[in-house]
C-alpha cells in the first residue's frame, strides 16, 4: 500500500581506484543473500546483477550458486557518458544502455557505472567457416531486441525484465499522500497506473506486467505506466492501482510479478 510521496534519491558510490575500473568476478551465493545486498556489498548499481545474470531468479537464489559480477567504472566529477566512453573506447550508446537508471545530464563523482559486456567475436574465422560467425551475429541482433507477447496477442520489444513483489493501492487520500484519486503528475488514477521506485523503473516508463491475479485487473497481464511513486515503494517493489475500496484492495496482499520494461 502506498503511504506517502517518495522524495529520497538512492545514491550508490564506490571508492575510486587509480584507473576507476573494477573487473568483474564470480561470487558464490551464501545463506540470506539477495541480489540487493550483494550489489550493496560490492558497491554496484541497483539491478546491475539482474542485467548480467538474466537466468537467475532474484526471488529464489540458491546457496552455493554462482553470480557473475559486472565490470564497473567509477565516474569522476564532471565526467559524462561521452567522455567516459571515449576514455574506455566503448560505444557511448552501449554504455548508456548498460546504465538505464543513471541520468546522463547529472553523473555525480563516485557514481558506479556498469561497463558493456565485451563480445568475443572480434577474431576472423577461416573462410570455410564463414557461415558460423554470421549465424552468431544474427542471434545477437535478435537478443538485443527481445519481445514479449501480451495476453491480447500483441508483441512488444522490451529493454529488461524485473522480478518484483507487488502490492496494491486504492484512490483513497490516505493511500496517496493526502491527495484523492490522482498520481504523481496529477493524472486521474486508472487501471494501468503503477507506483514505482524511480531509481529502478524511471517515471514515465511503459511496462507489461504478468503474474498477478486479482479481481478488477486484466487477466493474464496488462500494459501499465509508471506515473506514480510512494515512500513505501522502494527497490524492485511495484504498487498497482486497483479500483475499489481500501478494504477490497487490501485483499490483493503481496504477489510475485514479472515486469517487462518496454522500449
TrEMBL record:
GO terms for cellular component: outer membrane. The keyword Signal applies. Residues 132-142 have a biased composition (Low complexity). Residues 117-150 are annotated as: Disordered. GO terms for biological process: peptidoglycan turnover. Residues 25-69, 71-115 form the LysM domain. Transmembrane segments: none annotated. Residues 1-18 form the signal peptide. SUPFAM superfamilies: Barwin-like endoglucanases (SSF50685), LysM domain (SSF54106). InterPro entries: 3D_dom, 3D_YorM, LysM, LysM_dom_sf, Resuscitation_pf_RpfB, RlpA-like_sf. Pfam families: 3D, LysM. One of its GO terms (molecular function) is hydrolase activity, hydrolyzing O-glycosyl compounds. SMART domains: LysM (SM00257). Gene3D superfamilies: LysM domain, RlpA-like domain. Keywords: Signal. This is 3D (Asp-Asp-Asp) domain-containing protein. It comes from Aneurinibacillus thermoaerophilus.
Amino acid at each position: 500500500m502506498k503511504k506517502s510521496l517518495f522524495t529520497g534519491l538512492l545514491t550508490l558510490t564506490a571508492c575510486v581506484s587509480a584507473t576507476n575500473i573494477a573487473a568483474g568476478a564470480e561470487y558464490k551465493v551464501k545463506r540470506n543473500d539477495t541480489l540487493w545486498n550483494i550489489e550493496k556489498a560490492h558497491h554496484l548499481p541497483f539491478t546491475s546483477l539482474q542485467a548480467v545474470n538474466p537466468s537467475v531468479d532474484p526471488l529464489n537464489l540458491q546457496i552455493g550458486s554462482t553470480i557473475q559480477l559486472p565490470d564497473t567504472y567509477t565516474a569522476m566529477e564532471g565526467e559524462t557518458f561521452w567522455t567516459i566512453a571515449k576514455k574506455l573506447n566503448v560505444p557511448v550508446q552501449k554504455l548508456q544502455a548498460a546504465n538505464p537508471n543513471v541520468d546522463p545530464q547529472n553523473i555525480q563523482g563516485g557514481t558506479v557505472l556498469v561497463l558493456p559486456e565485451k563480445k568475443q567475436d572480434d577474431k576472423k574465422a577461416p573462410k570455410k567457416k564463414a557461415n558460423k560467425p554470421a549465424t552468431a551475429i544474427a542471434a545477437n541482433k535478435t537478443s538485443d531486441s527481445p519481445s514479449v507477447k501480451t495476453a491480447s496477442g500483441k508483441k512488444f520489444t522490451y529493454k529488461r525484465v524485473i522480478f518484483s513483489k507487488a502490492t496494491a493501492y486504492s484512490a483513497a487520500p490516505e493511500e496517496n499522500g493526502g491527495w484523492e484519486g490522482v498520481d504523481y503528475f496529477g493524472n486521474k488514477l486508472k487501471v494501468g497506473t503503477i507506483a514505482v521506485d524511480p531509481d529502478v523503473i524511471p517515471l514515465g516508463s511503459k511496462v507489461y506486467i504478468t503474474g498477478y491475479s486479482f479481481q478488477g485487473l486484466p487477466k493474464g497481464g496488462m500494459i501499465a505506466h509508471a506515473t506514480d511513486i510512494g515512500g513505501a515503494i522502494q527497490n524492485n517493489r511495484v504498487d498497482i492501482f486497483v479500483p475499489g475500496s481500501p478494504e477490497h484492495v487490501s485483499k490483493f496482499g503481496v504477489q510475485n510479478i514479472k515486469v517487462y520494461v518496454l522500449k
